[in-house]
Amino acid sequence: MDFSLTEEQKLIQRAARDFAQNELLPGVIERDEKQLFPKEEVRKMGELGFLGMMVNPKYGGSGLDTLSYVLVMEELSKVDASSSVIVSVNNSLVCWGLETFGTESQKEKYLKKLATGEIIGTFCLSEPEAGSDATSQKTTATDKGDHYLLNGTKNWITNGSSADVHLVIAQTDKDKKYRGINALIVEKGSEGFEIGPKENKLGIRGSDTHSLIFNDVKVPKENRIGKDGFGFKFAMKTLAGGRIGIASQALGIATGAYELALKYAQERKAFGTEISNHQAIAFKLADMHTQIQAARHLVYKSAWDKDMGNNYDLSGAMAKLYASQVAMETTIEAVQIHGGNGFVKDYHVERLMRDAKITQIYEGTSEIQKIVISRSILN
Ligand code: COS
To answer: The pTM is what?
Structure first.
């Protein structure tokens, strides 16, 4: 058992840390306040290879392992979870899904641009009435011979207005239930495709979250991913890896808040000494550090499972469940340690606390992770 990072992984971690500190930190409060999409920052992350980290270099990717991707997610998320969710969706859901299950021509046409960050993508599964209950798709993809006719609405779509490529899950044959669901590649600008208003969110406010509306959108058959009826399995398999990305985002948020709290506690004085000398604060720091380390082991283990070719449904679900809980608890404590300053935007911890909440919700709520985990241990 070897817990050390390779030299290459350390270099990648350092590059992400520097980028987060130098490029993401300066504008992060303003982007959060005004809900500004980090367009320029995303372009730079594309140049650094962060948008197609695990994609084979022949399709424009960086060809790295999942652990390297996790390390980058962790560093970006310490500072700016809005930027890291863009990275996570593009890498884990869009690029991975296309590279693993797409045809050669789909990879040539879409993956190359997505992996370099020339364009970004979305993953459209959730609907007004199908979030956790993902088999209940109301969006339809009616088979018209050489194309599908897509109708319906998708909700809470990350990168909604900024993406050029959308992976849309829709029901083709209702009688076949989840075996009649397909995954289709839909291009921005297709006739009948409309972007709904931007959501005004509690956290990750720099990422653009929209509803996407499809009215008789013609999608060529060659844009279907996998065989007819593969769409639900495509979504499940893709989300299993996505959960490792969100787990690493949660880990980064927790670590970012902890590091700020640790520094603050060693500077701020009360009752004649730094507050870190008070056991009430020191014990909080001890708990935060321990929980974060435990979360880190779960997250890295799930990445390792994926890289080793092991099944990672269980380890990814456990990593997401636990890391997101740690993110929530740690950020609340970080605000508490900061006292009045914690309630003020300039100190960053209140934003991290707001950002943490979504990690318990998207790409499968904590309750869904418990379904996945309990089914796995009971079967
Ligand atoms: N990998 C591959 N296949 C999977 C899978 C996985 N991780 N999870 C489920 N499947 C397959 C099952 O094997 C089954 O196919 P077969 O009958 O051919 O074996 C099919 O998918 C249906 O699975 P199941 O019967 O378990 O479906 P349920 O309706 O009971 O739902 C959960 C299972 C709850 C786990 C699923 O609906 C889920 O993950 N929901 C949350 C979705 C989500 O994350 N939403 C957030 C939106 S994205 S931000």
So the answer is: 0.98
